[in-house]
Amino acid sequence: MKIKIGNNSEYLIFTNFSPENGEKGEFANDFYNVSLQLNVNGITSNIGASIRVGELSQLYTDLLKLYDTLKYSFVFSSIEDNVNLHFTPTVTGQIEIKGYLRNSDYTGSIDFTIEADQTFMPSTIKEVKKFLESIVGEN
């Protein structure tokens, strides 16, 4: 399972979801370890992070609102401060995603900007929803 944010050339992918405690959890405070694969302007990275189910649920809600209005800005940030993404629509119909990724011991980080046409959003919204649906009732 993966969640891809961005277009074919510049993107951030959440992948390799695994429950932090070894058991699938559906509750807002349950943590999942993920790999964050970034590809921006020829720079690539792969950083591990911890994401709570509630954070992904809020990301889903915010992405829907942004896609529906193309005027809504929001910030997605993990409680562990490994990932921080600012989603902002532009006047040209693009979505600007400014953010940073940090490794789990906070010794390295990367700042980046992705500017993508909003056409990536339906598949991203579907992927987040699919992940959330996959964990419901499997606790």
Automatic annotation (TrEMBL):
InterPro entries, per the entry: WapI
Highest taxon of source: Bacteria
Record-given protein name: Uncharacterized protein
Higher taxonomy: Bacteria, Pseudomonadati, Bacteroidota, Cytophagia, Cytophagales
